[in-house]
Write a structure and sequence with these properties.
- By secondary structure, the chain is α/β, with parallel strands linked by helices.
- It is built from twelve helices and 19 strands.
- Helix 7 links the parallel strand 13 and strand 14.
- Helix 5 runs parallel beside helix 6 and helix 5 crosses helix 11.
- The protein is globular, with a radius of gyration of 20 Å.
Length: 358
């Protein structure tokens, strides 16, 4: 079967090969025919080494498809079911799951060290224990989450990561208050989802911040009150909040420089929500006095900071009701053979989300 493979960390191009085989099928496993997958910035971060991932590997973790076969003991899905690929499944047994913080379950991360594929030359891993830039993938049953048949594959794929992460940051982690002021730094697919979440919560003013003009224009369509380049954030802070700072600031880039800028843009007693996935060696500095004196809440948000299955259901309900625009987030579509074109679209900021149709 065909799959897009990164041979070595640090390479900027993927090799679409037809000698890849999905492996690991057996009890407790599900084989999925991938129909659509989104390109998330985390895929690029894994390719360049910002996020740890064994290589060679098949990127992709924001996918949806059809169940082909199920192993012994699998009861949550059956052949023919339409499913979202969940890259962070909850085991239900660990301390985090028992506390109700299922997004902190590490069971899914353990899968990243087990090969999902093989080639004649040897094992190939799947990014985040999945790897959806492929025609077929074998995953744990918990990674295959059924969705209704009326949810298109491309919409379901978005819900698998970017939408759940961005909406959840606003709805779950920050719990944006009605009438508040919000700034969102980084307006790709996750950022515009956070904007939509803040709008749903009734934020009075939402400032979108991004260096790419096309993304700023798109942010306005998704609910931002205004959109500015990063060097105009201070001016927006003065105009919108009289210099006090925003009630909520979402950092959706994953860099220390933008995290520090987000902290500076947050009012005393306000909330900085860190959504971007950054590198382990990229450190952000705060002094002990400002942490104490300003009483700003710093809230990291992993995968939307809430129960993943409920978040999927909520996203589908909001989409059906027309309360969130998911189809509009897909600005580009390519086939698997054109995956490197999709990477270019992401790196230049031309795309909010590119859907790879497989």
């Amino acid at each position: 079967m065909r799959a897009a493979v990164l041979h070595e960390t640090g390479q900027d191009k993927l090799d679409v090969l037809d000698d890849v085989e999905a492996v690991g099928f057996g009890p407790g496993k599900v084989r999925i025919r991938v129909r659509a997958t989104g390109l998330c910035h985390s895929d690029v971060s894994a390719m360049n080494g910002v996020l740890p991932q064994p290589a060679p590997f098949v990127p992709g973790h924001e996918g949806a498809g059809e169940v082909i076969d199920v192993g012994d003991g699998v009861t949550n899905v059956k052949p023919g079911d339409r499913v979202v690929v969940c890259w962070l499944p909850a085991c239900g047994q660990c301390p985090a799951c028992r506390r109700g913080q299922t997004e902190l379950c590490l069971a899914g991360f353990m899968n990243a060290g087990t090969p999902n594929f093989k080639r004649p030359q040897g094992d190939v891993f799947g990014f985040a224990g999945t790897g959806t830039f492929t025609e077929e993938v074998v995953v744990d049953a918990a990674c295959a989450v059924p969705v209704p048949d009326d949810v298109p594959y491309d919409i379901a794929a978005l819900i698998g990561c970017g939408v759940t992460t961005g909406l959840g940051a606003a709805l779950n982690t920050a719990d944006v208050a009605a009438g508040s002021s919000v700034a969102v730094i980084g307006c790709g697919g996750v950022g515009v989802s956070a904007i939509q979440g803040a709008r749903l919560k009734g934020a009075a003013h939402i400032v979108a911040v991004d260096p790419v003009a096309a993304r700023r224009e798109a942010a306005l369509r998704f609910g931002a009150s205004e959109a500015v380049a990063p060097d105009a954030l201070d001016d927006a802070k003065q105009r919108v909040t009289a210099g006090e700072g925003f009630d909520y600031v979402f950092e959706v880039v994953g860099k220390s420089a933008t995290a520090r800028a987000a902290y500076e843009a947050t009012r005393r007693g306000g909330t900085l929500c860190v959504v971007g996935a950054g590198a382990m060696d990229d450190h952000v500095q705060f002094n002990m006095f400002e942490l104490f004196f300003d009483e700003k809440r710093i809230l990291p948000s992993l995968y939307g900071g809430g129960d993943v299955l409920r978040s999927y259901e909520r996203a589908i309900a909001l989409w059906r009701a027309g309360r969130v625009d998911l189809a509009g987030m897909i600005t580009h579509r390519v086939r698997l053979a054109e995956i490197n074109e999709a990477l270019d679209q992401m790196r230049t900021g031309a795309a909010l989300r590119t859907c790879i149709e497989i």
